[in-house]
Amino acid sequence: MSEINLRNYAHLGDAVWELFIREHTILKTCNTKELHKITTEKVNAAYQAQMLKQTEAELTIDELEIVRRARNLPVPVARRSCQSEYRQATAFEALIGFWYLNDKERLSYIFKKFDEKL
To answer: Which of 14, 62, 103, 115 is catalytic?
Structure first.
């Protein structure tokens, strides 16, 4: 694994995930309100935590280690947010960021699996 901080992977993964979702929403509607609604339903901690859970069975030992370490990062959580959900989402974002920089083929494979669910 490269020397990039897990928080930086998560930061990048957040952007990559949102772009992936936005690419899908523009194919579903031209209505601005609907675009926003569809995007925000999928770019949030609860949905990302759910996607991580659905993906975990396919992860390698190294990927599971990234998830474990990122999930244990101290994260600021708004009072209305569920901390465990937020930690799962951070782990999901870190994994997406890791794949984006280090294994685009794996990222593409995972995104194709998500395509089926969107």
So the answer is: 14
